[in-house]
Amino acid sequence: MASSPSGKPVLYSYFRSSCSWRVRIALALKGITYDQVPVNLLKDGGQQLTAEFQVVNPMQQVPALKIDGITLSQSLAIIEYLEETRPNPRLLPQDQKKRAQVRMISDHIVSGIQPLQNLAILQRVGEKKLEWAQHYITNGFQALERILKHTAGRYCVGDEVSMADLCLVPQVYNAERYKVDLAPYPTITRINKALLELEAFQVSHPTKQPDTPPELRA
Amino acid sequence: MASSPSGKPVLYSYFRSSCSWRVRIALALKGITYDQVPVNLLKDGGQQLAIIEYLEETRPNPRLLPQDQKKRAQVRMISDHIVSGIQPLQNLAILQRVGEKKLEWAQHYITNGFQALERILKHTAGRYCVGDEVSMADLCLVPQVYNAERYKVDLAPYPTITRINKALLELEAFQVSHPTKQPDTPPELRA
Fold first, then answer.
1. Is B89's CB within 8 Å of A59's CB?
2. Distances (CA, A) of B146 to B12, B125, B166, B179
């Protein structure tokens, strides 16, 4: 796959992937126009595993962002790069300790919850996948609710949207998808609701992507 | 981590935890003295990169992240891949849940992750994971190779990973922080 002739960044994305959604939110918040190339993680055994895609991204992972002559994967690494090169509006607070809190919450979701209920692992788990997903999301949300009681203002850390919020919304979407009862998590629920009112979280939503199947389209 | 009354940082650590080891390496590389409180039960969640990034911002020398933004992104990409894409899938808690087939499970996820890692390192590596300076990516690599060996993963297909791991283990910070040399290392595993 060649770079976009327009010079715009190119995002390789799957509509339902939490990881892809985080990056879509970041691009929307920062007002970065880009081309999107859908990669279906289910079709043909997973289009991210093709030889063709390996040329784009040796790590064969989605999301992948082709930008400024390099290709990056891993949603938080991509978001941190966008933050450093296109700093406005901020996604990380200026205060070092608050910045650490944003990263800690992001890491908790991105390493401590999402990988344990992602597509690949649920395929491997097989029959008991709903129970498995519910177990790990519940564990993760219990810890997250406790952390957020200390850090949250209007959003995860204080009153400004940060990288932590980009991680939260897709994870709540997954929780709902796997029928996790959210009643024990009022802070998570409140913040999620406030974030979904923002345009960047709407335009990037899984129900509104080029590869959203017709039956799921908003 | 917290602060003790002496003002020194306090690290709550488990000798065998990849996550704790990464932070111990960072503290050693930056010459930060600290008190260690061994904990037996592991709190998973991989928030150690947030700790390392905080140490990098508040105690910037020596650097653990390159100055160049693109190289810095590569360091984070490799670190995240290990910390989100490999380690959580073979940590203590999940292997306990998996039960009998845990060796096969661990080998599967480490192998998958190392295949991708070997490919990206061919693009980014110099003496270490990204170029020739030790970075946060190297702090993530060594504990993961230790786990791979522990779960009997064949490392022959990963010459770049193997070479870098060997070079890093020659450095003092990676030795003093090693699981075989911690206050809570059981006698039979002690170096």
1. no
2. 20, 20, 11, 9
Q: pLDDT tens for residues B49-104? A: 998 999 999 999 999 999 999 999 999 999 999 999 999 999 888 898 888 999 99
CB proximity list for A21: less than 8 A, separation 6 or greater:
A169, A170, A173, A204, A205, A206
- pLDDT at residue B38, rounded to an integer: 66
Which of the 8 DSSP states describes residue A152? B
Buried-state track A82-105, b at ≥16 Cβ within 10 A, e below 16: bbeeeeeeebbbeeeebbbbbbbb
Place of tokens 């508040």: B58
Residue A140: closest CA among B114, B45, B54:
B45
Cβ atoms within 10 Å of B53's Cβ, excluding its own: 24
Q: How far apart are CA B82 and CA B101, in angstroms?
A: 22
pLDDT at position A193 is: 98
- Non-local (6+) Cβ contacts of A142 within 8 A are A184, A185
Instruction: Work out the pLDDT band at A2, boundaries 50, 70, 90.
Output: very low
Q: For tokens 């498995």, what's the residue?
A: A132
Q: Which stretches of chain B sit within 8 Å of chain A by CB?
A: 44-51, 53-54, 57-58, 69-70, 72-74, 76-77, 79-81, 83-85, 87-89, 94, 108, 116-117, 119-120, 122-123
Residues of B within 8 A of A114 (CB-CB) are 84
Mean pLDDT of chain B: 90
Which pLDDT tens digit goes with each residue over A84-123?
Answer: 999 999 999 999 999 999 999 999 999 999 999 998 899 8
Are residues A74 and B94, on separate chains, in Cβ contact within 8 Å? no
Tokens of B88: 């959580």
Q: Nearest CB to B46: which of A68, A75, A111? A: A111
Residue B42 above 50 pLDDT?
no
In whole angstroms, what is the distance from residue A40 CA to residue A47 CA?
5
Q: Are the beta carbons of B54 and A96 separated by less than 8 Å?
A: yes
Chain A residue closest in CA terms to B119 = A58
pTM of the model: 0.93
- Token digits of residue A198: 């923002």
Q: Alpha helices, DSSP H only, in chain A? A: 18-29, 51-56, 75-85, 96-112, 119-125, 129-151, 163-177, 186-196, 199-203
Which residues, in sequence order, are CB contacts of A141 under 8 Å at separation 6+? Answer: A113, A175, A180, A182, A184, A185, A188
